[in-house]
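Field guide to reading this record: the first block holds the primary sequence, the second block holds the structure written as discrete tokens, and the final block holds curator observations. Each block starts with its own label. This record concerns NtaA/DmoA family FMN-dependent monooxygenase, catalogued under organism Herbiconiux gentiana.

BLOCK 1 — SEQUENCE
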Amino acid sequence: MTGMHTAFDLSFAHTEGRWARPGSWIGAGFPDVQVYQEIARTAERAGVDLLFFGDGSGIPDTWRGSMDAALEWGIQWPRHDMSPVVTSMAAVTEHIGFGLTYSSTFLHPFTVARLLNSLDHVTAGRIAFNVVASARSADAANYGFDERMDHDERYDRMSEFMTVCRELWASVPASAIIADRVTGRFADPAQISAIDHVGRYFRVKGPLASVPSPQGSPVLVQAGNSPKGIATSASFVELVFGFGASVAGQQRHRAALDAALTSEGRDPASVGILWATQAIVGRSALEAASRRDEVAAFWNEEAVGAFLSHNVGFDFSTLPASFTLDELVDEVKRVQGAQGGFVGALVAELGAETTLTRTELFEHGWRHATGLDHTLCGTAASIADQLEENFAATGGHGGYMFSSPLAAPSGAADLAELLVPELRRRGALAPRYPGATLRENLRG
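BLOCK 2 — STRUCTURE
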């Protein structure tokens, strides 16, 4: 068993009421870079490996066919392109990595490959790329799609997208750059060539018109937990974000990933899973419980409905009085929604034949939206106990992607100043920044 790696998920550090909770900064909220610089400095002192930003470009509008609830309660919005913020965080740190998310469903691989190459230069080799197959209708509409792409086709497009990106990053090898000051020769043209990609979705001549970056390519990340998503990512993924709500679910995900990697001729031990873990850490159990109650008090049915409907891609306001989970899955498939996530976890937990009432579904949905169904709440010592037990039970390879439902920057600060040092004191963590790049640090 290797040591745990740690990451902080900052995707929603400012949404779902966090912006107003105790510990938020007055007059310096999202997207003030000072808040994010503070988080980056604090996390690096603790030796956190990665700061991660998910992304979405649409305002949630699936619930009741309207964006009003999301706008009113700040559900999954506002969302900015965080790449400029990452550059500001990199300027005040030296070792910690940064993960950015871009959609293979809507974007062009040349644009993304070029951008990430530049960011890897700016950060001196500390960039990771989380590629996603987008299922949200609000995002699709902003890119000119009248309807969402079929689930499996999204992953077919992702496969070709990543093939192009990887060919572009390899099209100008480091050895091609001569930079001879005496002769004036900059590069060896014999080592640089077009990729001449012609596929189902993309035509790209190449090569990438950029100097190779410190890592050569960003660390490649994927979070899809459907069978198609796991199979697609197995050819390229270096790090996986996992969402198993139970040990059994995590073990199933690990087994499915290992099988997919093996079928690609890759060593399963080469790819770790960072398990998404929301944590509320207090200096006492009572303090942690009080903070959990603050989070729970924010959520009403409109906020829950907007959250669930947006992330699944199905309008939960249309549910009948009762239904089987099998029927729900069929409806989600019919509208090309996300079959993993909340719905997939519910089926895994309760079984496809289970009948739920609308009220019961929203009780499960409330726990999912708040994250309280997978939140570790307590002192640093009690949470560390649970993490060590879970890490052993899920294969002992990877670590945890921590998020906080508390205010920014104090929620992240508690994780960095209380929980992470407790894990390091126990010897549970991987070595602190053993390499010069993010990829090297994640392998340490």
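BLOCK 3 — OBSERVATIONS
The mean pLDDT is 94.
Residues 5-285+372-443 form a domain with the TIM Barrel fold (CATH 3.20.20.30).
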